[in-house]
Fold this sequence. Notes:
5 strands, alpha/beta, Rossmann fold, single chain, 5-stranded parallel beta sheet
Amino acid sequence: MDQSTSSKRILIIDDNNQAADVAAELLALYGYQTAVAYSGSQGLQTAKEFAPDVILLDLGMPVMDGFQVAAALRAQPEFGNLALVAFTAWGDRGTRQRTQDAGFDQHITKPAGMEEILRAISTACDMRAGFARKIA
């Protein structure tokens, strides 16, 4: 297993508890450290406590949706290098444009296979690392 993989911390924020738990368990099998949150507000609190490298973020959540969570995270300097991956059932062109405009690094449409999820995580981390090098 790649050392860089095992050191990555991934937070899954999804109002579907079972989907979030399964994603966390599967990613843990690949060596990631994982945490879950079942709402947008809980996700923001967990992000502060868990300090993830990557967040898999559902868009269609009640009260505080994924776009609002992304905006709140991007507004905080401590999350400047955080990789954000939209993990949603919405895959239309308009939603993909909105995720890009909101600062997401990748967009995965559910249901997604592990290969696609792992590739999106890797690509999002590489993008954030490249961005950090540019501003350093």
